[in-house]
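The protein record quoted in full:

***
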Amino acid sequence: MPILKQEKGPGFPSKGVIALSIWLVALLATASVPGKSAPLHLLQKNDDKKQAEKDQAVRLHSDLVVVNATVTDQQGRFIHSLKAGDFVLREDNARQSIESIEAAEASFAAAILVDMSGSMEYKFGMVRGSAAAFIEHIGEDDQVAVYGFNDKIRQFQDFSNNHYITDYIWDAEAKDDTRLYDCIDTGIEALSKRPEKRRAILLISDGWDNTSHKASMDSVMKKALSAGVVIYSVDLIEDEFLLGGGSAGPMLRRGRAEMQEFARQTGGRYIHSPQGDKIEEAFTGIVDELRNQYTLTYYTTNEKRDGRWRTLSVSLARSGAAIRTRRGYYAPKG
């Protein structure tokens, strides 16, 4: 019987077409079957894209600088309705472009730090009452925490918008030494984790640090400036004690100078009240100040991650205005 020769036609694809079809089916199966991976070069491309987006987010976050400024006229009244164009903001003398401005009635987070060392025995009740008055004046969105310090650090009240101070502070006793730097460090650490851009410490003391083992004057100042924390210091040191003999006089003078420097460097205020009669008025004034600040943000033009000090200056084109803000900050490192 003769062998019939098979003819090629539409129903019989060539070997090349068959091979191509097999390759396409395999590729589609790889992409669609759960648990299978895409080709390595595509995965690498996606990973590179995600890393670039992550790096960009980190850069934007670390380069964004927040500057809180208190602006008053010659009579000490707050100046309102200023726009971004009214401010001149410089970093190391290089003018910066203001990214955003937030004015008046913005929420804030504050930590009240109360000296509970032995020398505060006769002033402690008055200080507790003033702290309670401060909390009574805060707004619905404001957050306040209360700490006490002697040779230990104690948190009486966590951040809250509660208008009543905790009863625990009324039971506290003034005794022992003064762990001032460590308590400031604790307050700054807590505030640095807060979402509010306006952050403040209210420091109340009648002496000097004599028992901190974690922090120093320099370390807490650097940390406060880097975290944008404004320090308001209330000095209860009695003036006649500054002239005392022995070691007390010089140490009390050092304590007063440090409280002044904390306020000056961070853009806060120093309140001198040896008898404590100005505390409550000062506290209610601080609430008003925090509510009426201007919060400016900018992306620094200096992209170096060198951890170095950068000087800040804020001014207005108009005359007759006074501006208080932090003197600078330390750049991120690494």
